[in-house]
Write a structure and sequence with these properties.
single chain, alpha/beta, Rossmann fold, 2 domains, 5-stranded parallel β-sheet, 4-stranded parallel β-sheet, 12 helices, 9 strands, 14% strand, binds phosphoric acid mono(formamide)ester, binds norvaline
Length: 298
């Protein structure tokens, strides 16, 4: 049976551990210039219904460096835009490629696509989560802080974003404490909250935290709500003053793209606590491990 990776909970804790172990190996090998060609002759389809920089480049580089090839298709350029069903697209693509990454809007679209596909499907960001990004974030936490378990993570800003939702899912799986700081209307639904604690006060959430993380105030597809979102979230910026409340060795994460001066200041992104560009790099290593795991059934 094929395996999908649509959410973090699709993998067991052992699988997550093995994935990070392999990602560490792959990162070290790349540093040494050692070639790894485990996916020679394999193909990966990248299907995009939304814009992307990191996800596209890191998945294309990942499969290419492992000896395979990527086919990138924005759905706007495909027959989906002219009415072909997602399911027929999934069935046909499964005859050509060994795995498919899909970036879409609603999670219903993602699940319908995955049900029809006969090869592994990876969630490359949906309204309900961004699990490949959060894998890279957790990997970065482990790298910088030694471990993830027992650490305190403060998520500040739009806590109903796909990033925040995946962090809520991750907290019980990876055993870290999650504090959310967001105004009412920008919090996860109770069912998604898990063990996260919510406050309206960013300073309360950040006090002593090991990791401070945020996401854009206006996610893809929310452009019409931009003015009201900016107003509601204005007091939830990750800036130097707020970061001063965190643990002295705290790291700052942001999945990028960032809007400097909105949800985070340029000084924090480029400052000594930022692990943001290592986090972006780690997408490559973690996704290589993920592709091997799904395609080779490691
Ligand atoms: N973080 C992330 O997924 O970036 P892109 O939207 O550029 O792919
Ligand atoms: N929450 C953001 C993440 C971008 C990687 C969005 O969905 O636009």
């Amino acid at each position: 049976m094929k395996r999908d990776f649509l959410r973090l909970g699709d993998f067991s804790s052992d699988e997550h551990r093995a994935l990070f172990h392999r990602a560490r190996e792959l990162k070290a090998k790349r540093r040494l210039g050692e070639a790894v060609r485990t996916l020679e002759g394999r193909s990966l389809l990248l299907l995009f219904e939304k814009a992307s920089t990191r996800t596209r480049i890191s998945f294309e580089a990942a499969i290419g460096q492992l000896g395979g090839n990527a086919i990138t298709l924005p759905t706007a350029d495909s027959q989906i835009a002219r009415g072909e069903t997602l399911e027929d697209t999934a069935r046909v693509a499964s005859r050509y490629v060994d795995a498919i990454m899909f970036r879409t809007h609603g999670d219903d679209r993602l699940r319908a696509f995955a049900r029809a596909a006969t090869v592994p499907v990876i969630n490359g960001l949906s309204d309900g989560g961004h699990p490949v990004q959060v894998l890279a974030d957790l990997f970065t936490m482990a790298e910088k802080l030694g471990e993830v378990e027992g650490k305190t993570v403060a998520f500040v800003g739009d806590c109903a974003s796909n990033m925040a939702l995946s962090f809520c899912e991750a907290a019980p799986i990876f055993g870290f404490d999650l504090r959310l700081a967001a105004p009412k209307g920008y919090r996860p639904p109770t069912a998604a909250l898990g063990r996260a604690r919510v406050t309206s006060d960013p300073e309360e959430a950040v006090a002593g935290a090991d990791v401070v993380i945020t996401d854009v105030f206006v996610s893809m597809g929310q452009e019409k709500e931009a003015a009201s979102r900016m107003k509601a979230l204005a007091g939830y910026q990750v800036n130097e003053q707020l970061l001063g409340k965190a643990h002295g060795n705290a790291i700052v994460l942001h999945c990028l793209p960032a809007h400097r001066g909105e949800e985070i200041t340029a000084g924090v992104i480029d400052g000594p606590h930022s692990a943001i560009f290592d986090e972006a790099e780690n997408r490559l290593h973690v996704q290589k491990a993920l592709l091997e795991h799904l395609i080779l059934r490691r």
